[in-house]
Each structure stands twice: as C-alpha cells, then as structure tokens.
Amino acid sequence: MDRRRTRAAEGPSAQSGPSARTWLGLLLLALAFPGAALAQLDFLDTGPPQTHFTPYADADYEHDSNLFALNPGAPAPVGRNGPGLSDTVWRARAGFDSAYDLGLQEFYLIAEGRRFIYDNFTQLNHDEYLLHGGWNWKVDSVLDGVLDFQRQRSMLSFLQFNATQTSASELLYLQVQDIAIASINVQMSPEWRLQSQGKLNDQNLQVPGTPDLTLHEESVHEGLRYVGFANLSAGLDGEYLRGNYTSGTFLATPGYRQSTAEFAADYVLSGLSTFHGEVGYTDRVLEQGGSISGITGLVSYQRDLTGKTSMTVKLSRAINTYVTAASPEVDTGAELDLTWNATSKIKVLAGYQYLHSSFSATDIQGVLTASRVDRLQTPSLSVMYQPLNWLIVRPYAQYQTRSSTARSAGVDIFTFHGTTYGLELEGRLKFQ
After folding, report:
1. The model's pTM
2. Tens of pLDDT, residues 330-363
3. CATH number of the structural domain spanning residue 215
4. Is residue 10 part of a domain?
5. Which of the four, 9, 225, 281, 376, has the lowest number of CB atoms within 10 Å?
6. In a domain, 222, yes or no
7. How far apart are CA 243 and CA 285, in angstroms?
C-alpha cells in the first residue's frame, strides 16, 4: 500500500507546481540566519577538495509467479503468450554516484536510467529514471543542514491500485515524483540542538480510471534534542502537513490536514547496538468531514549478535493515505532482518515483514466500497557474493501472501500469494 500524505484543497495544484511563495518559504528556512553568518562558510577548513565518481551498471533477471498481485480465482490478464499471472522480466540499470567535498561542504549528484523488458506482458515494457542532487552544508559546529532535490519516474506497483479492476490490471501505470527538502539545524548549546525541515512532494500519478491524478503535499517538521548524555539524544518532535489531490473527480476526500507530536530518542553503543524510537500521537482532519487519530511511531533496534551476525527489529504504526482512493489507511508493521557475514566475500540476508492495514470506506469512480483490513506477509532471502572488488552477484527469493476481509460475490478479491526469485549482477568502478 502506498503511503502518501496530502495537501489542503485551497492550496496550489500539483499540476501547476509549487507556488513562488512556497519555494521562497523553503529558501528562507534554509537561509534563516543573517548573511554575515553564512559568509563565515570555511571551504578550506578540512584540507584540499576531495571527490569521488562511481559509475555503475547492473542486470537482473527475475521470475514472478503472480505479477499482478491478483487472487488466483480472478480472470487472468492476457499477454503475448496468452492469459496468465506469472512472467519473467529483465531489468537493466546504469548510472553514476558522485560527490565533491570542499572543506565543510559536500555536493552530491546521482543519475540513473532503467529499462524493463517483460517476456509475456510486453505492454509493460518501459523506461525509468532517477535524478538526485543536493548540498550538505555546515558553518563551523553551530549550523548545518541540507538542500536536496530528487525526481524519479517509476512504475506503480500492482499492490497500489484496486485489485477489483482486473480489466485494467495488465496495463502500465507510471508516476513522476519530485521531492524537495530544505533543513537547518542549530547547536544552541553543547546540550541542546534545534532541528527544522521543510519538504515538498509532488506526484503525477496514473491509476485505473484517473490517468491524470496529481498529488501535492507540503510539511514542516520541528525537533528539539538534548544531546548532553554520551551516546544518547532525546527530545520532542512536531510535524504539520497538508495536501490535496487534483484531477481525481471520483475522490471523496481530496484534501486533509495532519499534525503529529511525538517523543524521539536515539541511543548508540559503539560496536554493539543502535536504538531509534519515535512514539507520539497523530491527528488527521479530512476537508469534507471526518477525522482519524491515534498513537503512532517507529521503534528500531539493531544489535550485533556475534562478530559476523547482526539483527534488526522494527515496529511501526502510522496514519497514511491509500493513494488510489485518497482515503485514510492505518498501517501497523513489524520487521525482522538478520545478516550473516559468512566470509569477507559472502553476505547472507534473511528477512520477514508483516503489515496490518486498516482501510476506511472508499469512493472509487462513484462506487462506494466498505472498509476492510489487509494482512500482508513477506519473508525473503538473498545472498551477496563479491568475487571481485567491482562485481557483486546476488541471487534472491521472496514470498508474499495477503489476506483481506474484503469480499465480492463470495470471493476474497484482495487475497493473493506469489513467489519471486531472480539473479542480479552489479558492477561498480570508483574513481577518486
């Protein structure tokens, strides 16, 4: 399920892009201190400039037994070789990762292109791309922050739109997403740190029945941390977010406002364990009436069990948006990951994810659907083998199963299961 939060309907539309006032607000957030302070940027504080440029390319051949995440009893989509649910896909990816360190400042740029070719469902063949760049800036030990921008074109997962629309289930749906972030952190004293961040998220979505659906969201996040304890920081966070959909005439709830207050803490015991926790309360108010609220948060614990084995446990609960219907979605998840560094060249990764999603009633193209609960489970296993410094070989396998309370004509329309396995080859060359 997709986790995209939205903006108020009276704000600028996503099609027209962020308003000048919005962009100005982000710039003022990042540059909120006098020019005299910024003039103190010391570009030579840590020695001569350092750069790295890492071109990379990989090829991935994968088989998916249920490509469209459909119930086996549903009508099968038709491809070049006839109807079916399974397919094999070849993915090619190429790009570069670069950074330029100039004293206290770091500039970075990532560019990547992708090609997807399907054996049976050739109508899904497509190209994707990623552009990501930014500036990690710092002024002595008092001020630091980030200016970051990312644009990505990608295919919508078949898990993200309504599985009842089997007539459209074999079609290709793409999205273009722009994310802009500006942050500034102030070390007010040796013990206290103030963290501020503004974020814009624009998405041009394609979903069945609404090919020009767009989403615009903007948020402000403030945090106060006490860092006077060794290995421990703790404090309070607050976030206000608003968003809206446009060009989605079927949407029953095009906009909302959401506020969150929480307690956050980080604890690091070098070489042994790491803890991160956020626990608080979130309240979402829908513009056309109604609200949803509750306890939310994220707890993550990583521990080195032995010199070669580590474990990570995550628990989370969040109020999100079911993007295909712009309705509230409450997600409660658990995740367990195990890593075994068998040798200096072989790493084994095993994981398990559980997601409990509660959906409110939705209005999809004028058709009301009842509320429902989905349970998605995903165990996975992969092996990373590095025979050469520049080459990684990764065989992998994953199983997904989802049960749902939604039923139509006696059929569990959202229930499915499927197996994915493949082999990925990745090459990287690093230049400094």
Report:
1. 0.85
2. 999 999 999 999 999 999 999 999 999 998 765 5
3. 2.40.160
4. no
5. 281
6. yes
7. 11
Only one residue has tokens 């994968």, namely 62
Number of domains into which the chain is organized:
1
What does R_g of the chain's alpha carbons equal in angstroms?
23
pLDDT score, position 309: 97
- Write b or e for each residue in 22-59: b if 16 or more Cβ atoms lie within 10 A of its Cβ, otherwise e: beebbeebbeeeeeeeeeebeeeeeeeeeeeebebbbe
- Positions of the chain with pLDDT under 70: 1-47, 161-169, 207-211, 247-253, 323-326, 361-370, 408-411
Sequence-distant (6+) residues with CB within 8 A of 263 are: 234, 235, 236, 237, 277, 278, 279, 280
d(CA 105, CA 147): 11
Structure tokens at 40: 């103190």
Q: Is 35 helix (H, G, I), strand (E, B) or coil?
A: helix
Q: Quote the pLDDT of residue 323.
A: 67
In a domain, 13, yes or no: no
* Residue carrying the six token digits 């959906």: 359
407 Cβ contact partners less than 8 Å away, ≥ 6 residues apart: 413
Report the C-alpha gap between 56 and 41 in whole angstroms.
33
- Round to whole Å and give the CA distance between 380 and 350: 6
By the 10 Å C-beta count (0-12 exposed, 13-18 middle, 19+ buried), 298 is classed as middle
Range of the domain at 330: 20-428
